[in-house]
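Throughout our pipeline, every protein is held as a single compact record rather than as scattered files. The record that follows is passed on verbatim for readers who wish to inspect the format:
___
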Amino acid sequence: MFGKNPSERGLPQAERKPFYPALIVLLVLELLAAGCTQSAVPPTGKPSTPTPALATPTIIPLAVPTATSTPTIYVVQSGDTLSSIAQKYKVTVGAIVKANQIENADRIQPGQKLIIPTEP
């Protein structure tokens, strides 16, 4: 139905202009604007091998799992004091008082169970 020549049908001939030179000029201008002024071909005439850019390593801190320890339970014996128990387990009296919510450190009873905290 349609021929390859539009003028055969009474249509004006479209003027074809090459766009490649304009495209190359635009690319060169883009490269110059980006600060790339080196030629892809060095003066020796041999194409250069691009050097790959090395990425700066990113250090990502990871959560280190902590050992969950089972608390030590001590059963108070006759004659025990919080001070003697603390010395035995190498913890402070304050740590035992806090872990057991003891109101009066002088009033512990034989048979009473105390949580002995582990200090990091």
